[in-house]
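Subject: Sanity check before I submit

Could someone independently write out the C-alpha cells for this chain? I want to compare against mine line by line before I put it in a report. The sequence has 100 residues.
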Amino acid sequence: MILFERGRIVDEYLSVPEFYGPLPPGDVVGLAANPTVVARLTGADPEAVRRVARTAPSPADLPPARELLAEFAEIMRIEGALTGWADAPELDGSVRIDRS
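---
Independent answer below. Compare away.
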C-alpha cells in the first residue's frame, strides 16, 4: 500500500518487506504502515491499523492476500476494494472512460 497526499508519498506498507530480498533494517521498519498517518488520511482507527497492518518474514505467516485486503478496506472505509477491473462497471457511480 502506498498512501499519497497532494501527490507525495506519505506512507508505505508491505506485508512481507523482504519478499524480494534482504533490506537494510531501516527500510524494513519504513515499510510498516504508520497508524497515525493512515488514520489522518483515511479516518481509520489507529489501533485497527496496528492490528491489520502486520508484517511477516513469509506470506505463509499471514492471512490470504484477499482477506488482508478486505480487512484494510474495511478499516479505511474503501468500497469496492475486492472488485476486479472487469466487474467495476457494475458498481454504482462507476464511470467508463473509453480510450482510442
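---
OP: Matches mine. For the report I'm noting this point. Residues 20 and 71 are 24 Å apart (CA to CA).
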